[in-house]
Amino acid sequence: MAPGFGPVTITAKVIRRASGVKLHSVRGRMVAKQSVYVADSTGGIEVAVWSDLIEQVDVGSTYTFSDLTVRRFHVTSVTTTVQTVVMCCDEVLSVNEAPIEEEAASKTMDVDEVLQFRCNSVSSCGSCHKMISEVGENVCFVKCTVCGMRQKVKNLAVKYSCIMNAKMANEVKKLVIHNPVLTDFFDKEGLEFTDNDSIEEYFLVCSKLRITVIENEVTDMCIKGESGPVTGGEPSGSVVALMQSKFCSDLPVTKDM
Ligand SMILES: [Zn+2]
Q1: Ligand 1 mean position to 124 CA, how many Å?
Q2: Separation of 154 CA from ligand 1 center, angstroms?
Q3: How far does residue 120's CA lie from ligand 1's centre (Å)?
Q4: 100-119 pLDDT tens trace
């Protein structure tokens, strides 16, 4: 996580939960995740709740969720982390009951063919989190030019950003795939790649890709028929004023759980 970008704590009432629990592979083990939608008097937000914490939240109750990290695609949402503690507390009296911004036109579609695919990636130092621009091929170690720490290339945090031209329903669309969606997909499908060329080639020959999109942004991907049903159109939370003021631009997104 980038320096100066700390975890957040919110106290809010659970308005509803998403149907179904999804299983995600996180560092080699399967972990359950479920989205809940919470609100206080200022607004609402989606909280991705992981693992044992899912059992701890009931619709209609108010909780304090500590140590959440913030994610941002189209709308801001938060996710629990291993540090998160969920504590029941007194009812929030005036909850804004219509706070949750429904995501505009989220559609789930099958991709007929990926025509072009571009995968860019940046690596960041495990110590100071600054970007490491030059990582040579077939090298085991790299020295951070900012903090001077030498480290194993395999331990660098890699963040991808991809663009694809996908043919769907006789239409070609240019779509953006951000790092969390891509790495989520790799986890779900058990995929590992050593370089960006392999990622690009994987998608070019991938014949069963099913994606959920909002405008030109991919928000979820799976391989048709192998993963569970796509829960497309899950509404996400609107931006709570507090978060909007605190986190205004695109945020660094880390692998959370
Ligand atoms: Zn460094």
Answers
A1: 8
A2: 15
A3: 21
A4: 555 456 789 999 999 999 99
Residue 80 resides in a domain: yes
Are 163 and 174 spatial neighbours (Cβ–Cβ below 8 Å)?
yes
Cα 66 from Cα 136, distance rounded (Å):
40
Listed in sequence order, the DSSP H helices in the chain are: 53-56, 179-189, 196-205, 241-246
CA of 129 to the centre of ligand 1 (A): 6
**18 within a domain of the structure (yes/no):** yes
If you measure from the C-alpha of residue 72 to the centroid of ligand 1, how many angstroms do you get, rounded to a whole number? 25
pLDDT in tens, 65-81: 999 988 776 677 888 88
Whole-structure pTM over 0.85, yes or no? no
| Residues spanned by the domain of 63 | 8-103+234-246
- Ligand 1 centroid–CA 132 distance in Å is 8
* C-alpha–C-alpha distance, residues 245 and 193, integer Å: 37
Question: Would you tell me how many other CB atoms lie within 10 Å of the CB of residue 166?
Answer: 23
Q: Is 53 among the domain residues?
A: yes
